[in-house]
Write a structure and sequence with these properties.
The protein is 2% helix and 47% strand. By secondary structure, it is mostly beta strands.
């Protein structure tokens, strides 16, 4: 099962969502990644590492970091909030999941929105700002962009000469 408002990521021609399974015999929930291949319209599953399987799916989000699938795990205690960024280094290989880093959510940081090319993490804040956080130095920088923490969205852009509709042939200029 998955909820329509949960995050999604598109990589390798496949759409990915955080989902969950109800485990038989009162075993509770099991979080996983649900997939749908666009080319052949086939659904599938990618298992999460043991550290994420028992996490409530609403505390997980999925996105891209460079060309890799990433799952962000949020932990919110009364006086302490943090998130962990997990990356699948080799697509489809369960053993390749690795925790990239753990970030203490300071400065009203609410939700990871995406990643910059320089490795910084974009966060929405409770005060409706977008900030850039450097996980190596621990410093953050306001970007002077405001909006509801749920209104921010980042999508990777890849330049391409492939046409989405019609012929995909390259036409040459004829010189008279």
């Amino acid at each position: 099962m998955m909820e329509f408002m949960w995050s999604q990521a598109f990589v390798n021609g496949v759409v990915h969502w955080i989902a969950y399974d109800v485990v038989a015999n009162g075993g509770g929930l099991r979080s996983l990644v649900m997939t749908c291949s666009i080319a052949d319209e086939v659904f599938g599953e990618i298992m999460l590492p043991d550290a994420l399987v028992s996490v409530i799916p609403m505390n997980l989000s999925i996105m891209l970091f460079e060309e890799s699938l990433v799952v962000v795990r949020y932990e919110r205690e009364i006086d302490d909030a943090s998130c962990e960024v997990w990356v699948m280094k080799q697509y489809g290989v369960l053993e390749s999941w690795s925790r990239l880093y753990r970030i203490n959510l300071v400065a009203d940081m609410e939700k990871v929105v995406g990643f910059r090319n320089n490795g910084e993490v974009l966060f929405s804040t409770r005060s409706n700002d977008l900030i850039s956080y450097d996980p190596n130095s621990g410093h953050n920088m306001g970007l002077c962009i405001q909006g509801s923490y749920r209104s921010f969205y980042v999508q990777n852009y890849m330049e391409s000469l492939i046409l989405l509709k019609g012929n995909n042939a390259v036409l040459s200029n004829v010189v008279d």
